[in-house]
Design a protein that fits this description.
Elements (H helix, E strand, L loop, with lengths): L7 H15 L36 H37 L12 E7 L4 E6 L5 E4 L4 E2 L4 E6 L3 E9 L5 E9 L5 H4 L1
Antiparallel strand pairs: 1-2, 2-3, 4-5, 5-6, 6-7
Length: 185
Amino acid sequence: MTQRKNHKPIIAALAVLACMLIMEPGGVVYGVDTKRPEGTTYTYEADGKPDPFDPFIDVSRNEEEEQRKAEAARAAKAAARAAAEAKAKAERLRFLPPLQRFSLDEFKLVAVGGTTHKKVAIVEDSKGKSFSIFMNSKIGMNEGRVVAIRDDRVIILERIRDAEGKITARRVALKLMKDNIEGDQ
């Protein structure tokens, strides 16, 4: 049986020795053909050339450009959000019952009737169409609900969302408009 010898450590040691022979005392490795002749120095002529120490990319211009792009992206998102909200609102209005398509100031209370246990009120929209409303009927664009029907008015509780998204409750009273019968003659 013959033994195989591992020559890798010997080759590595010879490579290190060869590198040490090529290196000069300053620690710089020069090849045979790259040695400079004695007495020659290198000078840099900067005329018409860019400064080698200036960064390749103008950081301040890029920051301004990134800020412009970010602002444009925010504006585009806000416009898209507003368009989506307008589309959603139009879509909601299309599927809402007629009483919820108008704001409360477009309704007028025409009549109130019924028993003490079950009252009914008649409201008229701006187009002249009449609707019957009862307790807990939904009315108005701001999620209004009828909370009380009295002999001369209907009280509605609305939920209004402000610019910050905070919801506040507001009571609105639709008063009965009594005609002046004596004045009509």
